[in-house]
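Task card 7
Instruction: Convert sequence to structure tokens.
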Amino acid sequence: MTTKRFIAGAVCPRCNEMDKIRAWRDDEAEKQYRECVACGYEDEQSTVVQAQPQEIATRVNQPHSSAPEGDTAVINFVPNPGTTKL
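Output:
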């Protein structure tokens, strides 16, 4: 176990006091601990790195081809004869 150190600017989630949280790490148990000296709040977190989940497949992150799919046709727009100026 290592030295317990105060975390500057940390706010306790229970009592909302600032600069009352101290943290330390236990490498044998592979855990990190924190506690509030004002209200006695305690918390522990695992230091074991878990595998990153795979990204969900969406249309944004899938490769795309530059060629359009399906048949293409040329469209000619004819202006509205009622709006033409003479």
